[in-house]
Amino acid sequence: MSNLRLKILKALLRVEDGSYSNLLLDSELKKIEDQRDKGLFTEIFYGVIRNKLYLDYIIDSFSKTPLNKMDKEVLTGLRIGVYQLFFLDKVPARAAIYESVEAVKMILPNSKKGAVSFTNGVLRNINRKQDKLMLPDKKKNPEKYLSVKYSYPVWMVKKFIEQYGMEKAEIILTAGNRRPEVIYRHNSLKMERNQFLELLSEEEIEYENTFLDSFFKLKKINNPADTEVFKRGGAYIQGTSAGLASLLLDVKEGMTVLDLAAAPGGKTSHLAELMNNTGQITALDISAKRLRLVEENLERLGVKNVKLKKADAVQYKDEQQYDRILADLPCSGLGLIASKPEIKWEKDQSVIKEMAELQYEILNNNLSKLKNGGKLLYSTCTLSREENQKIVDRILEENKELKLLDLSQKLAQVSSLKMETENKYLEILPGEVDSEGFFYALLKKVESD
To answer: Which residues of this protein are catalytic (predicted)?
Structure first.
């Protein structure tokens, strides 16, 4: 067992150094055979990342040594131990402390025996005095209270309160700490719906329907990329909010479509499926490595109508005029915290301004490629008005030939969601809808007289 805690400790240190949690977790789980160990690894690994600020608050409350004076291995080991003490009822306190201390002992050199004793002492102290932990006063300092309780940086808490009010902000914060869902999109280019559902049944994969007809929420699945239906191209792993973007773009067979930021290929392949492999989709990405990933996905899914191009969308030149443009652009990602919890710790407020400028530059460079009567969908997976509503407002102000379309009718056609569209935009908030946070705006180029 201590070996499992050691693996978790090493993996968490790699996330601290910049590794993507979801990719790292996939690679680590492949090395573990026992299903219970897989489950425990996932629980502690994601639990520590999600609750890092809260765990540090607890450690800091019971340790005489400041956090910044601790070895990173010791601090990570303490987080693993405290997470188990506070969140995992099925792990006895004695085992949680012993296994965490052993992991620290195994990763540190013999010359640091004092650090191992320190880890043991702090964890035992916390276990004895758990009921004495005091959170910041909610009335005197609501931002600090929410920051600690839900483990988010204060600047992010303030932003959510400022934009949505206290009640909605707390709903968003709560939803961001839930385990992410695993969703299969049925890919009709490779198999009929009946065959897709039969394969799920054969592999005893339980599922629930979602607000999108061809998207299915899976229950209790260890590796969704290791099933027969996935390997045969009948399924793609994609969130419902991401899937909604392609549906709102309103593509038809035979159209020309420009996808400005294609990787990893989920929306590109979905558009190809909606167009029944007709017409042509030109799909851009700035990274050759990410384009190879798109290519692999398109091949597995049987997509034939996509032309991939390595290009920076800020400078991309193209004389062609397109019926549709998908501008699902890079963003701060504040809507994806449930599935990528490290976003909380990797981003600061400056990223919002940087992303907003990048989004504006990409849109500004590509609006001329839209045909008269053509439509452009702008979408992001973030909850920041600077990157969402304000960008669209700026684009509309500067381009009088563009008109903002009301998405409510299209939303009713493609989904079972019952939502009000605010000023014609659509914003999905985690917790209010059982999905990732997303923003959508559909623009139409009005035909000139």
So the answer is: 381
Which residue ranges make up the annotated binding site for S-adenosyl-L-methionine? 261-267, 285, 312, 328
CA distance 130 to 134: 10
Whats the size of the chain, residue-wise?
449
Q: What is the CATH number of domain 182-237?
A: 3.30.70.1170
Closest CA to 256 of 276, 275, 280: 280
Which CATH entry fits the domain spanning 2-132: 1.10.940.10, 3.40.20.10, 1.10.260.40, 3.50.50.60? 1.10.940.10
Take residue 294 and report the two structure tokens written for it: 């798109």
pTM: 0.92
Output the tens digit of pLDDT for each of the chain's 449 residues. 558 999 999 999 999 998 888 888 888 888 888 888 888 999 999 999 999 999 999 999 999 999 999 999 999 999 999 999 999 999 999 999 999 999 999 999 877 888 999 999 999 999 999 999 999 999 999 999 999 999 999 999 999 999 999 999 999 999 999 988 899 999 999 999 999 999 999 999 999 999 999 999 999 887 888 899 999 999 999 999 999 999 999 999 999 999 999 999 999 999 999 999 999 999 999 999 999 999 999 999 999 999 999 999 999 999 999 999 999 999 999 999 999 999 999 989 999 999 999 999 999 999 999 999 999 999 999 999 999 999 999 999 999 999 999 999 999 999 999 887 777 999 999 999 999 999 999 999 997 64
324 beta partners: 257, 375
Look at the domain 241-445 and name its fold: Rossmann fold (3.40.50)
Residues serving a catalytic function are: 381
| Domain ranges for the chain | 2-132, 145-176, 182-237, 241-445
